[in-house]
Amino acid sequence: MIKILFICHGNICRSTMAQSVMQYLVNRQGSSAAFQIDSAATSREEIGNPVHPGTVGKLQKENIPVIPHRAVQMKASDYEEYDYLIGMDSANLRNMRRIVGGDPEKKMFLLLEFAGEKGDIADPWYTGNFEDTYRDVRRGCEGLLEHLLKEEEV
User: Fold this and answer.
1) What's 124's domain CATH number?
2) Binning pLDDT at 50, 70 and 90, where does residue 17 land?
3) DSSP the chain
4) Number of domains into which the chain is organized
5) Whole-number Cα distances in Å, 100 to 77, 96, 113
């Protein structure tokens, strides 16, 4: 089983969007039994809060089921539990490395790397632009799934 943890600052917008999009893609592929997909925050600001209404609205508009989720903070033990820890932006990646004490097994990535791009996925908490965030998350998740189907035994 391939275990993926998507991570952003608060775990209510981008990482939960990526979690729902990735689950949708693997379900559509018929590979859901091969994956465990979750999400977490680097901060404690939103702990216990549900998925942001803007994320819910955008996913519903795209006919993607929203995975029920309450924000949780990433733990150091997540490094051992997950095969891929995927941040939404470079600040997330720095904080992920701080939380777990580095990345000796090279399990940490930025989501857009899998779309063949460098850069961050903008946080719609600040921008209000869930359309652009969805577009980037979707491209990243599609690239990640393509990578995993090619590189892993799925």
Assistant:
1) 3.40.50.2300
2) very high
3) -EEEEEEESSSSSHHHHHHHHHHHHHHHHT-GGGEEEEEEESSSTTTT-B--HHHHHHHHHTT-PPPP-B--B--TTHHHH-SEEEESSHHHHHHHHHHHT--TT--EEEGGGGGT--S----HHHH--HHHHHHHHHHHHHHHHHHHHHHS--
4) 1
5) 7, 6, 21
Q: In whole numbers, what is the pLDDT of the chain averaged over residues? A: 96
Could you give the percent of the chain with pLDDT greater than 70? 99
**Catalytic positions, please?**
8, 14, 123
Q: Who has greater pLDDT, 153 or 68?
A: 68
Which structural domain range is residue 129 located in? 2-151
